Amino acid sequence: MLQGRELAPFRKRLLGWFRQFRRDLPWRRTKDPYRIWLSEIMLQQTRVAAAIPYYERFLERFPDIQTLAAAPQEEVLRLWSGLGYYSRARNLQKAAQQIVAKHGGRFPRSAEEVLALPGIGEYTAAAVLSIAFGEKYAVLDGNVARVLARLGAIRGDLRASQRWQKLQETADKYLDPKSPGDWNQAMMELGATLCTPKSPQCLLCPVSQFCEGRKLGIAESLPEKRKKRATVEVTLAVAVFMDGNGSTFLLPPPVSTEVSISADHIPTLVSRMWHFPAVSVTGDPAAKLRVYLRKLLPGARNGDLRFAAAGKVRHAVTYRDITLLPFRVDVKKLPEVPGAKHVALAGVSSFTVSNLTRKVARAALAAAPHVPEERRE
Ligand code: SF4
Questions:
Q1: Among all residues, which ones are annotated catalytic?
Q2: What is the pTM of this model?
Q3: Measured from the CB, is residue 148 less than 6 Å from ligand 1?
Q4: Whose CA is nearest to atom 1 of ligand 1?
Q5: DSSP line for 278-327
Q6: Disulfide engineering: 223 pairs with which of 149, 200, 233, 340, CB 3.0-4.6 Å?
Q7: Which atom of ligand 1 is nearest to the CA of 150?
Q8: What is the spatial distance between Cα 8 and Cα 259, in angstroms, rounded to a whole number?
Q9: pLDDT tens digits along 186-233
């Protein structure tokens, strides 16, 4: 860890570099805590370039906390649609509602109050409080941890709790108390642009002279690899009904928020969005899907449940490797399912659905229509 007299020149070099070379990003042109908070939430799982158009569209529709709090959840999710990890959007709105109810619509300034809001952890609280209000909280996320690990030549799993705590202490110590917001952004910017996971650009780095990892020639190998969580493979059989007008139906988001994947449930995989009827399968997917559809459509006759495989779609979510097996069910008339919505199959993408559902819709559209058995030669 840098000590005493090294700290002032270290801060000066990093801040000077940041102020000269920082990227001009929409959320850097404001001190509005709502906008900074929104950007931090969007950037949690999304690259900067991909997040910008979403950020701008979202703010056009929800320019302040009050508007977001009062909006129908469906609309919030629609504007989030495509960014994935929809719990972020739900929590954002829940937090906005709490801010309206408990803080008169103004983003709170105390760390305790901010951390009590849904979807806001230590990192986001520190980012918003420092950037919007100049509070002295140092951010620590994977990006900043990597920079700190290289600067201090820290080996081992950075997420191990004691090591993470030490990194937080280091981040706190390095924080420039005169410009905490700029300092935090400078650390993030260094991690995002020069001290990147692969091939850090040490020759361009403003703080290379302070970097132990570079001096020891081990910067590139830091942080050391974490033990990977084993990948879980999941196969889902998905029924895509289609009538003669090209319409299909989607089932509503499950009511429970606690349901995890089990033999017959897929809710967490469809992110609690509108979705096609689907079932998790291990053996014969068509047989399992048929059993499931009989339960879903108790009035259906045998002839109504003829379907044809429509290819295979892969989708990865964190540690899950999902194989989707869409089956197209061509029918004269869509069955009536309580709570279901009828939509054009070609228009599913503009609806509030997950990427997983979009992929299935595309595969089903691309597949040839199912030819009922009685018309086969
Ligand atoms: Fe990262 Fe290289 Fe700069 Fe060290 S010198 S902080 S490894 S970019």
A1: 40
A2: 0.70
A3: no
A4: 195
A5: EEE-SS-HHHHHHHHHHHH-TT--GGGG--EE---EEEEETTEEEEEEEE
A6: 149
A7: 7
A8: 51
A9: 999 999 999 999 999 999 999 999 999 999 999 999 998 877 778 888
